[in-house]
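User: quick one, fold this
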Amino acid sequence: MKEKVSEIMTANPITGTVPSPLNQIVKILIKNNLTGLPVKDVRNHYAGIISRRDIFANPVETQAALVMRNARTVREDDSIKSAAIEMLNQHRRHLTVVNENNEITGILTPQNFLQVVREKYGNIKVKELLKTITIPVWGKTPLSMLPTLMRLSGVYTYPVVNANGEFIGLVTDRDLFDKIDLKSTTVLSEAGLGEDEDPWSWSGIRNVITYVIEKSNIHLPDIPVEKIMVKNPVVVSSSDRLETAVKSMSTGNYNQLPVLEADNILAGMLYDIEIMRVFL
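Assistant:
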């Protein structure tokens, strides 16, 4: 059984540097399909961490140092349990691993913990972990409302329900890109892409929807959310064991799963970071 951070971390992660302009960090995130990365200073020492959530919260900033968080780190020899608890304490999905010289050696996200969770805590019922408030949207909600909802709530994934409260689909920030003409926005220059490059070939571009909207003053059409939602997403039952949910998350690299009760009634959303509470 794995016990130490070094056994589950992603070693030698992609990093950013300070000082640097924020659009350089955005470019790295897009090119590598990342949602966050550690940042080092000119001496190659850990300086902080930047996630897409931090960028979304500060769309008008131009320097990475103004967005970067100097979050607590963990060491390779630390226990997996203590690292999971630290992630819970920060309530952030990215945790940097450093050595005794404060140099970055790895990174942890909830995905790194899932195999251990499956092996040690797989018999726990999904319903025991549903603590986070879930924000559903009605299928007839205008699409143009979602960026405001995302900005105010800090949530970027929404289960969609019909007038009877039945689950009918899922919509995320990525789905909004179907309705945006990237060539007409400033995202290409902000991300360091050339006019002749195809942004759709960079899957990571889908991770910066709110950033694009804020920077480009985009107005989405007033079509209903149900027109673009994912109609048959992977789901899990509230009565399922955690082993089943973790397997689906690992296989599909999902950060969350809709949780249903009988008759397609929404019970909540299971987020990978909330799964870390099993270590408590």
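User: anything notable?
Assistant: Confidence is low (pLDDT under 50) at residues 199-207.
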